[in-house]
Amino acid sequence: MDIRIGITNSPREINFESSQNAGEIEKIVASALESKSSYISLKDDKGKLYVIPTAALGYVEIGSDTSRRVGFVA
Which terms in the Gene Ontology molecular function aspect does this entry carry (predicted)? Predict the structure, then answer.
C-alpha cells in the first residue's frame, strides 16, 4: 500500500510503502482526527515508524492495493 502524507507549510511529502491495508490506515487517521489526538503513527514495510503530528497534516493519500503492471498495455 502506497501512503503519501502532505505536511502543512512544507514543500515536501512523506511517501512510503506499508503492509497495512487501506481500511486500517483510514481508521487510524480518522480516529486520531476525531479524538483530537496529537499525533498518528504508521509503520512502513521495512519496520520504520512514522510519527506525524495531526496539527501538521495537510492530507493523507492512500494508494490502491493492486500491484503495478510492468510493460506496455495494448
Answer: ATP binding
pLDDT digits (tens, 9 = 90+) for 3-58: 999 999 999 999 999 988 899 999 999 999 999 899 999 999 999 999 999 999 99
Vertex 65, ends 6 and 2: CA angle to 5°?
Answer: 25
Give 61's strand partners.
4
Residue whose C-alpha is closest to residue 45's, from 10, 73, 19: 19
Of 4, 22, 1, residue with least CA distance to 12: 4
In the three-class reduction of DSSP (H, G, I as helix; E, B as strand; rest coil), residue 8 is classed as: coil
pTM exceeds 0.90: no
In 3D, which of 45, 55, 47, 49 has the Cα closest to residue 10? Answer: 55
